[in-house]
Amino acid sequence: MSKIQQNLMSLQSYVLAEEREYPGATGDFSWILSAISLASKSIGNKVRRARIEDVLGDMGDTNVQGEQQQKLDVLSNEIIKACLGSRANIGALVSEEDETPTVLRSHKDGGRYAVLFDPLDGSSNLDVSVGVGTIFSIVRLGEGVKGTPEDMILNPASRQVAAGYVLYGSSSVFVVTTGNGVHMFVLDNSIGSFVLVKENLRIPATNKIYSINEAYADRFPDGYRDYLKWAHDNGYTSRYIGSMVADVHRTLIKGGVFIYPQTTDRPEGKLRYLYEAMPMSMLIEQAGGRSIAAAGTRLLDVKPSSLHERIPVVMGSSEEVQHVERFLSKD
Ligand code: AHG
Ligand code: MN
Ligand code: MN
């Protein structure tokens, strides 16, 4: 596809064209992805105007995670729910910012999918203009599902049909997979559309970059500390932004490994399974990388037992994950 053609291929038309490959495809995905695209344009606007519109800073209360809620966390959550709430094929919404799922309609009333999302990831970076983003996962709902928390955590990874994120960085980048490779779009503000910039993105098999918050090293299990010692002795460089979307995006493009381990004070780690680790793992695997929660444990094989469950994360280039895994297996 020529550069001109690519840059005029919008997210909408790309997903519609992809769906035509599937017999009986009903346009469900494009409907949901167009809602997410609309929400992300609005959130991106708010993020870029945060200082102007004075929507920085925290709400003064905490969310279900027990974390300081930023004003923009709440605003982003409301924007996404407003955009997705109008899609008649969505049964339930699960948000990092809401204790329980928002049930929109039962399966028999047409609710065929649930959308799980982190409306604003990395929000602690907001007031210093560092990349933040939105992460989403689309899971198919089985018959008779009512959208209760129990329904949502019933082996979601096997029902995950699409995953993606939008990074509000120097440009707004929309990265998505519907199980058929990973594709990247950039918001062309002159036409207001996300346009295709890279089809079938593949993560490099190796690159000597690790991404971890080394400030917590004393609280990591030994295996991670042994890996870090090995990496220091083998010429690795460290890159850590503190927004998962930005750190994973760099890992996807340049290769390397992103790690958020369990610690003595957070034995299950910090990142949430349903709307951070699970969608990012689908993207990394679709791009040819690996994502594990422990030595020999593929992250997407883990079955969560609660809605906001956290999980340790080691994801990125296959060879780089292997280097970490080698040390974890000695734990
Ligand atoms: P969120 O802003 O949605 O709560 O997510 C923040 C997460 C993730 O984006 C990032 O990788 C991690 O927090 C950084 O945590 P530390 O500040 O503990 O390194
Ligand atoms: Mn997050
Ligand atoms: Mn968040």
Distance between the termini: 48 Å
The largest sheet, given as strand count, sense and whether it forms a barrel, is: 8 strands, mixed
> How many structural domains does the protein architecture include?
2
Number of helices: 10
**Number of DSSP strands?**
16
Instruction: Indicate the CATH topology of the largest domain.
Output: Fructose-1,6-Bisphosphatase, Chain A, domain 1
Give a list of the ligands.
2,5-anhydro-1,6-di-O-phosphono-D-glucitol, manganese (II) ion
> Regarding CATH, which class of the largest domain?
Alpha Beta
What features would you describe in this structure?
With 331 residues, this protein is of the alpha+beta class. The chain folds into 2 domains: 3-198, Fructose-1,6-Bisphosphatase, Chain A, domain 1 (2-Layer Sandwich); 209-328, D-Maltodextrin-Binding Protein, domain 2 (3-Layer(aba) Sandwich). 32% of the residues lie in helices and 25% in strands. The protein contains 10 helices and 16 strands. The strands form 3 sheets. The chain has an 8-stranded mixed beta sheet with strand order 4-3-5-6-7-8-9-10, with helices on both faces. Strand 11 (209-211), helix 7 (222-233) and strand 12 (237-238) form a beta-alpha-beta unit. Helix 2 (11-19) runs antiparallel to helix 3 (28-48). The chain is globular, with a radius of gyration of 19 Å. 48% of the residues are buried. Bound molecules: 2,5-anhydro-1,6-di-O-phosphono-D-glucitol and manganese (II) ion (2 copies). Residues 118, 121, 244, 276 line the site of one manganese (II) ion.
